[in-house]
Request: fold
Amino acid sequence: MVKNKFSIKIISKIVISLVIVAISASMVYFFSNQIKKANITIGEKKEMDYLIANREQVNNKIKTDFLSVDSTYQEKINTAIPSVNYILPFVDAMESLEKKYSLKQTLSFGQPTPSTTVNGPVPLMLVTFNLMIEDGNIETFKNYLKDFEKLPYFSSIDSISYQSSGKAGWQENSIINIVGSLYAHQ
Reply:
């Protein structure tokens, strides 16, 4: 009996010790997680304080870096995407190509429609144009197209038809019809 009581006391002391160790381990785990969370929060606050304190310096660095890429970017964008109400510079560029290659051309425009192919922060409009070139041979036309490609406008050629009436075919003066698109902003 005495042995039984002694065994029960030892077992109860061991169980109590194990419960205390388990409670202690749980408390250590809980408090270590709390310390980690507090550490992360403090780190985020320090980073935000640094950014707020140095935001002017950071903003100036971003502006400087952006301008070092190309200081005339805004001017180039404004030129490349004209207003639908003012496409005269595009017309002037087309007329200068006409004069450069001594061609006779007729240029007409359709009504502007919203572009469904290009999405961005500024809604773009699509202005279709028809260009008829008379008295141009294939060599002149190839050079004309090379210069058209160099124009500083967001434009595309959708179709080309080339009609020649002479025996020499493309080498003779022909009639060339171009249907294209000019992107513009509203």
In short: Helices lie at 2-53, 55-69, 73-80, 88-100, 138-149.
